[in-house]
Amino acid sequence: MRGVWTTEAVRAAEQRLMATVPEGTLMRRAAFGVAGQAARLLTEHAGGVSGRRVALLVGAGSNGGDALWAGAFLRRRGVGVTAVLLNPERTHAEGLAALRRAGGRVVEAGSAGAALTAADLVVDGIVGLSGKGPLRPGAAELVAAVTAPVLAVDMPSGVDPDTGAVDGPAVRAAATVTFGCRKPVHVLGAGAVHSGTVHVVEIGVERELPEPDMVLLDAADVGAAWPVPGAEDNKYRRGVTGVAAGSATYPGAAVLASGAAVQGGTGMVRYAGTAADAVRARWPEVVATGSVTDAGRVQAWVVGPGVGTGGAGHDVLEHVLSAGVPVCADADAITLLARDPDLWDARDPDTPVVLTPHEGEFARLAGEIGPDRVAAVRRAAERFRSIVLLKGHTTVIAHPDGRVLVNLARSAWPATAGSGDVLSGLIGSLLAAGVDPWLAAGCAAYVHDLAGDLAAEGAPIGASAMVEAVPDALRTVRAATVTG
Ligand SMILES: NC(=O)C1=CN([C@@H]2O[C@H](COP(=O)(O)OP(=O)(O)OC[C@H]3O[C@@H](n4cnc5c(N)ncnc54)[C@H](O)[C@@H]3O)[C@@H](O)[C@H]2O)[C@@H](O)CC1
Ligand SMILES: [K+]
């Protein structure tokens, strides 16, 4: 598991560390890391380091100081470095002196055109963790003129450090070098995209950090959490997943959610609903009945995709919520809960519920998301005493106790009709096996995204292809566990 820490936590850790090391040490460590990545990018994009040209965009604070020191390190490797000062009277003095000593050029924003045009790489040291709001007009104009790849120092300037929100002009980096740990800007929403590839450089601050504010799962974490049957297991012990989804008119959701539950490794899938024939035809291993009332025992329910928002869907949801087993409620089930909060009364208070809304469903259930997605999902998880998984390029999964897990999409190919049905089937499969619901949602999100990526191989796919690719995705995460 990799942690993500808010800027507040990072600042506090930096304060503690700074008291123990000579002044300027951390900045030079940070800058050394930036210079190393800059050299790597120059090699990649310009075929070498010595003789190549780098422009530094330097703002008023320590972020600009990092860029200037990195420029000084690059000068020693034969790079032509020009610093563009956006705020000359507030430029980091030691950093500027170091760059000048190393033979770097310094220009003001008004005369930066030639340096930016000639640059093989641009380093964004405009603003770091103290950044507020989008780029100011002067910086925005310069950034718009950049054609070379951009390496962001700590974070792409103009993005909100704690929410990843982009609300105007912002740097779009090819890569970001950050210090000590990942911050929310690197993993949330537009910030994740604007950060490019994120490299974490250790500067000592990582040793001072408390428990993370959010976590990201690695392939090995998912591989370790995904249930593997043992010699004593049988189909019941592996878990029976109930699927209450789809309808005779719209059988697709039923077929996809049931298929994902099968491929996710549950011991048995019981389907209950009016799409029983379609489910049987595609997945003969599924035990299909017409109604939840005669579905038999299950260890978890998936409810919602395609059940409709009328009276029949309402009754199905009420039955499932009162069954006393974990529930993954998706799609129409969320709309029903939003419209009729009394449905919550049916729930056994100790039964875990995982809600998997997309943005529209989330808004219906819990109000507008706003720029701080994590705060919104945390609030909803607490309010509904449920695990809440908000879908998006970054999937955010909150536990009612405040823990948050995020999953970054590899690509947008899985954003296709029926994709959500696959996710809920996978979650159901894990819930039935007794996996902790918060972790189950995180693991399912990871495998869902990986399956989409493996199926797509750079071309569009349908949700059925994602279901087919689930075993490949599971082999991949299990291999990561074995190889460590
Ligand atoms: N504190 C530490 O121990 C370390 C800090 N480091 C660097 O220090 C950075 C934080 O430095 P600072 O706190 O000095 O502040 P920043 O460099 O993030 O910001 C400087 C100033 O820019 C202005 N500003 C805010 N939003 C802006 C916007 N949208 N456009 C233009 N200007 C804006 C504000 O006046 C702000 O105080 C980190 O991101 C990192 O790069 C590193 O050197 C590592 C060690
Ligand atoms: K920056």
From TrEMBL:
Domain YjeF N-terminal, residue spans: 10-211
Record domain YjeF C-terminal: where: 218-477
Catalytic activity, EC: 4.2.1.136, 5.1.99.6
Any GO molecular function: ADP-dependent NAD(P)H-hydrate dehydratase activity
Keyword annotations of the record: ATP-binding, Isomerase, Lyase, Metal-binding, Multifunctional enzyme, NAD, NADP, Nucleotide-binding, Potassium
Assembly with partners or alone: Homotetramer.
Name the record gives this protein: Bifunctional NAD(P)H-hydrate repair enzyme
Species in which this protein is naturally found: Gandjariella thermophila
